[in-house]
Amino acid sequence: MGCSASGSAIYRQSLTMMQATTILTIETPGQGLHDVTQPVLQWVQKSGIIVGLLTVFCQHTSASLLIQENAAPAARRDLEAYFAAIAPEDAQRYDHDEEGPDDMPAHLRAALTNVHLSIPVIDGKPTLGTWQGIYLFEHRRAAHSRRLVLHLLGE
Question: Which of 1, 12, 15, 28 lies most in the core, judged by the most C-beta atoms within 10 Å?
Answer without folding.
Answer: 28
